[in-house]
Design a protein that fits this description.
alpha/beta; 9 helices; binds manganese (II) ion; single chain; seven-stranded mixed sheet; five-stranded mixed sheet
C-alpha cells in the first residue's frame, strides 16, 4: 500500500531575529513568515493528500517557548487531515518535565504523535501500514546519536513501511567539526535497513535536487530561509513510498522570504539606477546585503544615498556597505597626487583617456600602495 509523506524540519519557530539590527517591523515579518510557512506546509500536505507529516526536529527554536507560540503551532498542525509525527531536535530537545513538551503533551490532538521515546511507533491505529523509528534528541549537544536502540529487522513489528526519523549531523554532509550534533554516518543509517529515513538538522536539503528516487536518507533543509547564510529558497520533500522497497521524492519550494548577498561594481549613477531596476522586482519579500565597490564622480557619489534609499523602500530590508566605493579619478586628482613626468601620472592619464574605469582604479590602487 503506497504511503505519501510530507517531510520537513528546522522551522525554528520562536526565533526572535535579534542577532542583526533589523528594524522592528522587519523582525515581526521574519517571525510571522515562519508561521505562515507552517500553515502553507500543512495546506500543501492536504492538497497532496499526504497521510503523514513528518517534522524531523527543531520545529521550535528553544525548549522554553512561549505558551502562546505552542498553542498557535498546535492550531496550525491540527488542520492537517493526516497524521503528524513530531521529533524532538537538538534545539527543542525532549525534557519530560520541561515546559515545551509538557505543553505539547497536554495540548496534542489525537493525530499528533510526539516521538519522544526510544521505541517503535506502529501507525496501524491511525490506519497506516507503517512503523516509525525515532532518534529523539534529549539535549542540545551530544557526541553520540540516538540510533542505538533500534532493533534489527527480524525483531520489528510487522508493517509494509519502516521509516526512520532522526535529527543530527551526517558525516561528510553536515558541518559538525566537534562531533556535537548527534553525529550519524550514511553507513550506520543504511545498516539499519529502513525503507526510508527522514532527517533534520542540516539547513540545506540533501540531495540537492528537485526529484529523486530511493536514497539512503533525505534531509529537508529549512522550509523558510532564516538568515544571510541561507542561500536557497526553502523546501520540503514530498515522498511517496510506492511499495515495500521503492520510493520517489520531489522537493517543493515553500519559502516566502529570500536573503541575498550581492557585490556590485558601480561607476556612475546610471549603474545605481540599473541596479535598482534589477533588484526592485524582488520586492518586499527580499532582504539584501549589498556591497558596493567601484567609483563614482563627485556628484554621483553624493547622490548615492538617495538612490539607495529609493531601493530600500522597495525591499523588505537593505543593508549596504560602500566602504570600498570611491570617488572618481579625474585628471585633477591624478595631477594632485603624482608629478607630471612620473610613471603613475603617465599610466593613469592614459587609462583615464582610454575609458577603462576598472583598469584605471586597479592601477590607481596599486600606485597608491607603492606610494605608501
Ligand atoms: Mn538542529
Amino acid at each position: 500500500m503506497p504511503l505519501k509523506i510530507l517531510h520537513t524540519a528546522d522551522l525554528h519557530l520562536g526565533m526572535t531575529f535579534k542577532n542583526r539590527s533589523y528594524p522592528e517591523t522587519v523582525r515581526e515579518q521574519l517571525i510571522e513568515a515562519r508561521f505562515d510557512t507552517l500553515a502553507r506546509i500543512v495546506g500543501l500536505a492536504n492538497t497532496e493528500q499526504c497521510a503523514l507529516l513528518v517534522i524531523a526536529g527543531d520545529l521550535f527554536h528553544r525548549p522554553n517557548i512561549a505558551a502562546t507560540t505552542i498553542t498557535r503551532t498546535i492550531n496550525i498542525l491540527e488542520r492537517f487531515q493526516g497524521c503528524t509525527a513530531l521529533l524532538p531536535g537538538n534545539h527543542d530537545y525532549y525534557d519530560h518535565d520541561g515546559p515545551l513538551w509538557r505543553a505539547l503533551r497536554s495540548e496534542a490532538f489525537d493525530e499528533l504523535i510526539l516521538l519522544t521515546e526510544e521505541h517503535a511507533y506502529p501507525l496501524q491505529d491511525y490506519g497506516l501500514d507503517a512503523v516509525l523509528y525515532p532518534a529523539p534528541c534529549d539535549k542540545k549537544h551530544s557526541s553520540t546519536n540516538r540510533l542505538g536502540w533500534i532493533d534489527p529487522p527480524s525483531e520489528r513489528p510487522s508493517a509494509c513501511h519502516h521509516i526512520g526519523i532522526a535529527h543530527g549531523s551526517v558525516q561528510g554532509i553536515s558541518p559538525d567539526l566537534e562531533d556535537q550534533y548527534f553525529p550519524m554516518t550514511t553507513a550506520e543509517l543504511s545498516a539499519l535497513k529502513m525503507q526510508h529515513w527522514c532527517l533534520g538538522h542540516t539547513h540545506v536539503r540533501h540531495p540537492d535536487c528537485n526529484e529523486t528516487g530511493q536514497q539512503p536518507f533525505l534531509i529537508s533543509g529549512v522550509p523558510e530561509p532564516d538568515g544571510f547564510d541561507c542561500r536557497h529558497s526553502g523546501y520540503v520533500w514530498l515522498t511517496e513510498l510506492t511499495d515495500k522497497k521503492n520510493s520517489s521524492s520531489c522537493a517543493v519550494e515553500t519559502g516566502r522570504l529570500r536573503f541575498r548577498e550581492i557585490e556590485k561594481k558601480v561607476y556612475s549613477v546610471a549603474d545605481l539606477d540599473s541596479l535598482q531596476q534589477e533588484l526592485a522586482p524582488e520586492g518586499e519579500r527580499t532582504l539584501i546585503k549589498l556591497k558596493l565597490c567601484g567609483a563614482l564622480s563627485d556628484t554621483d557619489f553624493r547622490a548615492r544615498g538617495a538612490r539607495l534609499n529609493t531601493l530600500r523602500d522597495q525591499l523588505l530590508y537593505l543593508e549596504t556597505d560602500d566602504s570600498e566605493l570611491t570617488v572618481e579619478i579625474t585628471p585633477e586628482l591624478i595631477a594632485a597626487r603624482y608629478p607630471e613626468s612620473s610613471f603613475p601620472h603617465h599610466l593613469l592619464t592614459r587609462l583615464a583617456k582610454r575609458g577603462d574605469p576598472e583598469a584605471l582604479h586597479l592601477a590607481y590602487r596599486l600606485a597608491d600602495e607603492v606610494k605608501k
